[in-house]
Structure formats: structure tokens, C-alpha cells
Amino acid sequence: MASRAPAAPPAAAPLAVEPARARAVLAGPAAEPGSTTPHAPARVSAGAPRPPAGVGPMSRRPPASSARTAAPAVGADPRFENGPLAVVDAVEGQVLAYCVGGLVLDVPAKSLPALVEWALREARLGQPKLSGSGKDADPLLVLTEAALERYGLPVALTEQERLAGRIPEGHKVIKQLTRANWQLTKRGFGPWGRVYRPAQGSERSCVQVCIPSWDALDTRHWADAAQLAPADLARLLGLYASRVMTPRGSTAVTGLELMTALHPPTRASRPDAAGKRYSEHNPGSLGRDPVDCAPCEAPDGHPLLAGLPRFHQRTPAEVLMEEAYDWARPLTDTECLHSHLVGIDVNMAFAAGANGLTVGLGGPEHVRQPVFDAKLPGSWLVDLSHVDLSRVRVAKDTWAQLDASLLPSPFTPGGERPTGPAWYATPTVAYAVELGYDVHPVEAYVRRDNGRYLDAWYQRLRDAYLATMADLGVHADLPPQEFLVAMDGYRHRDPQLATLVSAIKATVKGGIGKLRERPRGEGWKPGQPWRALARPTWRPDIRAAVISRTRVNMHRKIVKHAAFTGQYPVAVLSDCAVYACDGPSPLDFLPYRDGKPLPGGFKLGINPGLVKHEGTQSVLWGEGVREQFDAPGLNLARYIKDGTVTHTDNGE
After folding, report:
1. H helices of 270-348, where?
2. Which runs of E-coded beta strand occur in 155-202?
3. Is 391 helix (H, G, I), strand (E, B) or coil?
4. Which of 205, 203, 199, 202 is nearest to 277 (CA)?
5. Within 106-206, where are the H helices?
């Protein structure tokens, strides 16, 4: 299916090409999916108008030659008129920079330092800031294998270089950069490099470098993007940049950077008597300085835990363990009589968990014998073992009788019922109250300076996801049956747009995970600080709150569904739940009445928090793989998508 991007303007007469230092190639629309002959581009002078970014669906083939002109992009920032990035390629001794919108620039640079200078001074690459007090995005250069050879860089890293994540500091290209007064960050020159000079006032001199052949584009999230033709790779990354932000590294790094870009740590103050402005804290941000976490929020090896005995295993009463679900149970005799196991998956579950969530902005305050406040973010030591899932409140004055043995506990990742006091994030404790039970915390680490820090982050990623799915023919207002049909095979309509969907989803999960980044080698030893701790965005409490709320959201839907239908999940893995029923479709067990879903339960749709069909297998398949691997607790949600079980489930 073709993308819903604007159609390209009509063709014009061929234009003569002048040997300018930077000349443009304006690509016509790429081939429709399934076509073998794409329309071809034309060459015009560097000052010629260019098409809007993202015109035309993607093609795997590089453009050929013909003639076409286009109108300039409306509202484009003239400083960045050539888009946020360029894919630099070398063909027969000529270096070309493929930009978004089909624009191709001649690159005169003979060395990497000269290429960096060109990107900053001539290429007009970059992206306007996402927040009024933020910073413009640096130009991004993506180097193909041919460009690497042209500029004296290896096409692939050695095993030693791959493990180090960089080429040696003594490499000749790094020496060239040093002689030209360029600097590298502490991570050196690797798959994602940053080449810069110290800022002079508000003038920034920094270029990001991405090298796909060095595994910069993780195939788990970017599929085969590294193998795309330069023009197609430019459009894929350009769409990601326009809908999310210019990539700054992996999808996880970019997810974290997006938080900061939307809530910069500082802003300009009001002018003083002399008319001078100063940098001051930006309200609603995490600020410039890192804050200590609470001891219960610290992961193993953290400096706060340096006094613990070696090999000490912390108990739930010592450590906050808010993680995603990994729970399964054997099928009941009644469930074994059904024909199918159907998996449903929550769209953008962690993004939905972040939406509207109040999180701490500053450091924790230790309180003993606190009164629980559901509006106060923090970590609470409280005994929830008295919460009985056989009788829960499902509405303001409505209680339901359930079979607790068929339900996971909402308080532990493994679904087991807690046996005593344990640390929980605010959403988990608030859910115990929602279910109708009193709570009496023993102590807490609360954050009185708080706010909805992730709202703008959620909204931008939600909009990126919905826009891309709409391009693939899946719209937010589809009725349930039409939605299931639209989702069937959507990835094959435009594989590159499907890759963009995966990258956006990975940006959500990775960004949340980066809030509690662990040591990454570099000679680290337990009890010593690691590099990530110096970031204001190292916030394990925020990660815990998002995961807590995501798990609670899933459990609430499960409970509402069980109370209304008497059906219970047989497995839950993170954002996927599996039910036994007598049909292959989610509509065979989801209780729709007159096209309307159960209030508060599962609802089919593409919006974050709604569910889609994850996969269907037979009940015989489920019982067969459990018997084959001699694992009664095998989590079928992990394999429901395609039914392939390659090894015994160990929970990893």
C-alpha cells in the first residue's frame, strides 16, 4: 500500500547541470510498492527549489536520471533547508550527500575534518529545537561503506574494536580530527560519533556521525535499514527525525535525549536591570545536576550499597522490584476443551503507562510511618499480602468475586502473592487501594517536587506512531473487524515504514530502560560509580513508576474482563496476554456489545493502551510444547506470535 504522503508536482523540462560545489538532485516519486521501475531524479543548480521532506513512498532502489522540479517546503527553517541529516556516499570518485525529500548535494570535502566543516558551514543541515528553551539539533552524517573507504575509515570494526565500541585513538583519521582542532566525546569514534568544538556563546559546532556498517542501526529495531540504498536510508531516518527527533545514537539513547529536548534543564532568565539574561533552572525539568536515588531504588553494585556484605541478596523489603510481567499457569480442564489460544498485545504499553503519570523531579525525602498519598510519587515499604484477589472492587460501589488462583498478583513481576512488606512505587500501592484494601506503609522515600515530566514525550511518540501506522493503512477510528483486517500483513505494505514503526516503539522502551542504565564495562567494580550516574536523567524511580503503572494497567483490564466474562489469562508477558477460546480471533473472547467494548477492559484499536492481535495457536500446540520441554510453567505468551519455541524458557 502506498504511503499517504503528498503527491509530487508534475515534471518539468530538463535543466543543464553546472559544476557547482554543491548541486542538487531532485528525486521524483519512488516506485509504488511492487513496481520495478521507479521514477528518476533530475539535476538542478544548488539554489533550485526542493521538494518537501518525505515526498513519495519508499523504494529500495537508488534513483536514476530524468527531469523533475518541485516547490519549496512550506515553513522550512532556512538554516536547515536541506533537512536534519545526509547519507554520504562515494560513487566513482564523487562524494554525494543524500538528504530528505530526494535532494542530493555534491560534497567537496576530501577528508573527514573537511566533511565536518562542510556539514556545519555549507550543507544547511540540522533541525529546529523542540522546545522554546532547548537547542537546535546538530547535523547528522550517515556514512556508507563507500564513504568510509573514501575518508580512510574501516568498513567494519574488528572484534576488539566492536567490544570497545570505537576505533583506536591512534587511528589516522582521529589524528586528522585532532590536528583540525576537533574533539570527540569520551565514547570516542564508534558507530555513533560526536565531533565537536567547544561552544562559543550560543554558536554550536557539533556534528553527529552514524556508521551503519559498524552496527549503528540495531537490526532488532531497524531491520535491514543498513542495507538500504542511500536515498531510501535518508528518507527512513529523515521521517524518524521529523516525527521523533534527529537520532543521537541507538533508539534507547534517542528516547532519553527526547525527554531532555522537550524539557531542557535550563532557560534564559528575565533580563536584569542592565538588560542581561542568565541561565536558570527550567521548571518542570530534571535540572542540570543528578540527584541521588533512595537506597531501595539503587540497583546492585550502586555506591549507596557499598557497605553491604559481598554476595548479599536483597529481599523485597530491601529493594524496589518494579518490573514487567512474566507469569504463566497450566490450563484448567475447561480451558483444555477450547480450540485456540489467542494472544492480544497492548500497543505502546510503556508509553501509555507514562501518559499523565506524575513523577519526581527532585531528590527523595525519607519519611517514617507515612500516610499513603496516591498523588505523591515515591517508593513505599508496605505489606500488601492481605490483598485478596478473590474479592475486589471493580467500580466505586461494586465488588466482584473472582478465582484468585487463575490470576497473577498485580504486586510482583512473577505474579506470585507477596508474603510480607516490600517496596513498591506509588501506582502499585494506589492500585491496592483501588481494589478496596487499606494500606499502612512503614516508611517511604517521597518526592514532593514532582510533575508530569513525560507527558510531552508520550505525546510526540504517540503522534509519530499513529502517523506512521496511518501511512500503512491502519487508522485510529477503525471498527474492530476492520482494524483486524487492516493490521493483517501491514508490515508488507511498506517494509521501510514498518521498520519506522519498530524504531518508534523501541525508542519508547529503550528510553524508559535508559533511566536506570547499568555499568557498561570500562573497568567498573561493584560499589564504584559509573558514567550514567552523572546524568540528571539517571532516574530509576521514574523507570519504576512507569513500569508499575504499565503492569497495573494490564492487571486492571484483566480483572475487569474476568469479572464480566469469567475468562482468565493463561499467560501474561509484559504487554501480551493469552486467553483460551473457541475461535482464532480476539473477537471470539473480547466482549463487544453493539460494537462497543467492555468499559475499562480490553479494546481493539491502534491507540496506545488499546490492543491488537498478537497471534493465535491451538490449545494442542500449547500443551504439546509444555510437554516437549517438560516445563508446565512455560510462558506461552512468549511464543504465541509464530508458535516457534527454540529452547526452554528461562525467563531471559
Report:
1. 333-336
2. 183-184, 192-200
3. strand
4. 202
5. 112-121, 145-150, 159-164, 172-179
Please name every residue paired with 612 in a beta bridge, in sequence order, or none if there are none. Answer: 345
Q: Is 407 left (phi over 0), alpha (psi -120 to 50) or beta?
A: beta
At residue 542, the 3 state secondary structure works out as helix
Q: Residues 76, 101: contact at Cβ < 8 Å?
A: no
- Report whether 577 contacts 558 (CB < 8 A): yes
Divide the 652 residues of the chain into consecutive groups of 10 and give the mean pLDDT of each group. Answer: 38 34 39 36 37 39 33 66 97 94 96 97 95 93 98 96 94 96 94 91 85 97 97 98 97 98 92 85 95 96 92 95 97 97 98 98 97 98 97 93 98 97 98 98 98 98 98 96 96 96 98 95 88 96 98 98 97 97 97 89 97 97 91 91 71 37
In 392-487, alpha helices (H):
426-434, 455-471, 480-487
Cα–Cα separations (whole angstroms), residue 559 to 165, 322, 601 = 46, 20, 8
Between CA 38 and CA 29 the distance in angstroms is: 7
What's the rounded Cα separation, in Å, for the pair 587 and 571? 18
Cell of residue 626, nine digits: 509444555
Question: Which grid cell sits at 380?
Answer: 513505599
CB 248 within 8 A of CB 192: yes
Quote the DSSP letter at residue 43. E
The runs of H, that is alpha helices, within 244-304 are: 251-262
Cell 499457569 belongs to residue: 329
In the numeric block, which cell numbers belong to residue 10?
508534475
Are the CB atoms for 232 and 496 separated by under 8 Å? yes
Using the Cα atoms of residue 165, residue 170, residue 173 and residue 178 in order, give the sign of their dihedral. positive
402 close to 392: Cβ distance less than 8 angstroms: yes
Helices marked H in 333-399 — which ranges?
A: 333-336, 349-354
DSSP conformational letter for 137: B
Beta bridge partners of 443: 368, 381
